[in-house]
Amino acid sequence: MQSDSNKLPVSTPYDQIGGEATVRALVDRFYQLMNDLPETYGIRKMHAEDLSGSAEKLFLFLSGWFGGPQLYVERFGPPFLRARHLPFAIGTSERDQWMMCMTQALEETIADAALRARLHESFSALASHMRNQAEQV
């Protein structure tokens, strides 16, 4: 049996990116891009005029999703992301607009290229999972 003193500390993405301050910076930049880029009008119009509520919920969710404090769960319970997004028509275009904002926000806030690539891959899978509209042929 291994003693506690021999265990290596577990480093989560939350810790690796710099914790709360970086998660907040990522979320702030993400919503700034969504608000400012004409190419993301499709997803911007799905949100309230004031993005602060959406930004706070994304911050709370990402804190836990990155392995930090489970702030979203503590406040709202399990995220059930797909179910919460079902009222919105999310197809390939909306997914791609969301990823455009997240990709740029990641590039501007996450210094470690390997970590940034892993996060991008995870976000891409999550964004694809949110799609609830059939492909247009």
From TrEMBL:
Xref: InterPro entries: GlbO/GLB3-like, Globin-like_sf, Globin/Proto, Globin_bac-like_CS, Hemoglobin_trunc
Cofactor(s) recorded in Swiss-Prot or TrEMBL: heme
Pfam families to which the protein is assigned, alphabetical: Bac_globin
Family annotation (SUPFAM superfamilies): Globin-like
Keywords attached to this entry: Heme, Iron, Metal-binding, Transport
Cleavable signal peptide: none
GO MF annotation list: heme binding; metal ion binding; oxygen binding; oxygen carrier activity
Annotated family: Belongs to the truncated hemoglobin family. Group II subfamily.
Protein name stated in the entry: Globin
Organism: Parazoarcus communis
Organism lineage: Bacteria, Pseudomonadati, Pseudomonadota, Betaproteobacteria, Rhodocyclales
